Amino acid sequence: MLSTFLQELPTFVTALSGWMITALRVVAIIVVAWIVIGLAQRGIRSFRVRIASRLDDGEALKRAETLGRVFRYLVAVVVCLVAGMLVLSEIGISVAPILGAAGVAGLAIGFGAQSLVKDYFNGFFLLLENQIRQGDVVKIADHSGLVEEVTLRYVRLRDYDGNVHFVPNGEIRSVVNLSRDFAQAVVDVGVAYREDVDRVTEVMFDVSKELRRDKEYGPKILDDFELAGVERWSESAIVIRGRFRVAPLQQWAVRREYLKRLKAAFDANGIEIPFPQMTLHRPAARGNRTASNDPPEREEGARRSAG
Questions:
Q1: Same domain, 155 and 217
Q2: Which range (183-187, 250-254, 271-275) has the least confidence?
Q3: N or C: at which end does the chain have fewer Cβ atoms within 10 angstroms?
Q4: What letter does residue 296 receive in the DSSP assignment?
Q5: DSSP bridge partners of 167
Q6: 104 and 60 together in one domain
Q7: What was the pLDDT predicted at 297?
């Protein structure tokens, strides 16, 4: 028995050394892949920072950051696939049949995963055409919010309430970008029918000039107040529309501050902000052939702002 063991010992040692060499090669492949991914991602990040330092446009900076993140993701995926095939080759598994089977399986999976393929294609063109970038505020697929992340698979949004929405790129049919180049702060102001429209618009212009001179809000406004005029006749008010051209994402802050100051100006000038009113007609008493000549009674609803 001892002689048999001594005869088989060289074979065992040779096999053990072969497995150890294979294990060392596998570990070396994994380590090299990890190093390559780290160096490539660091290089992409450094290149993005260098490009960003030469750009003064905030929109271009957002696009560079988004594309840099996508390229880092692609580099990690490609290197991992190559490393995986090399590891399979080292442990004695032929890669060629796997690639052939993967082609057939990929065709079958493609029919069942059309939505996934659509997500990646749509995500690629969203980035290529610069429709969505990190930091934008957009409306997509019945959701709206701040774009926190853009990948080839999905877009991550955070709405005003803090909720996070993951929207697959395949569901995005149209994009409403609220933060590209500039925005418009649109204001609709309702006043009573008896007010002089010319006097109301004069007060609106005065408040807009005051807002433009403000140290905090002045830099956010890019152009003078634009008055569109009387927008419509509503049930209890004349609605006058105007707008400011403002910096991206500043339309809500400018609109709120303008309406706040306009309310104070209307109060100071005695301009009425209307509230809903209802006119009640009292029917004639039973048995009385003539209609009542009493004037109709007017019931005032709860006061509320019409702006």
A1: no
A2: 271-275
A3: N
A4: P
A5: 155
A6: yes
A7: 47
C-alpha of 129 from chain center: 16
Question: Exposed, middle or buried by CB within 10 Å (0-12, 13-18, 19+), for 76?
Answer: middle
Backbone phi, then psi, for 185, in 5-degree steps? -90, 100
Cβ atoms 211, 218 nearer than 8 A: yes
Provide the 10 A C-beta neighbour count for residue 31. 11
Contact 190, 144 (CB under 8 A): no
Any bridge partners for residue 258, and if so which? none
Q: Tell me the sheet residues that pair with 278.
A: 299
* Residue 190 β-bridge partners: 239
Of residues 24 and 163, the one with the higher pLDDT is 163
Asked if 83 and 25 count as a contact pair (C-beta separation under 8 A), the reply is: no
Tokens of 121: 């294609």
In angstroms, the CA 216 to CA 225 distance is 17
CATH number at residue 39: 1.10.287.1260
Whole-number Å distance between alpha carbons of 91 and 86: 9
Number of independent structural domains in the chain: 3
Backbone angles phi, psi at 283, to 5 degrees: -70, 160
pLDDT of residue 298: 45
Q: What is the mean pLDDT of the chain?
A: 79
Provide the sign of the torsion angle of the four alpha carbons 61, 66, 69, 71, taken in this order.
negative
0.90 cut: is pTM over it? no
Alpha helix segments (H runs only) across the chain: 2-53, 58-90, 95-112, 114-128, 197-212, 251-269
Spatial contact of 197 and 238, defined as CB atoms under 8 Å apart: yes
User: What is the predicted pLDDT for the residue at 4?
Assistant: 60
Of 70, 82, 67, whose CA–CA distance to 153 is shortest? 70
CB proximity list for 86: less than 8 A, separation 6 or greater: 29
Residue at which a domain ends, from 63, 83, 112: 112
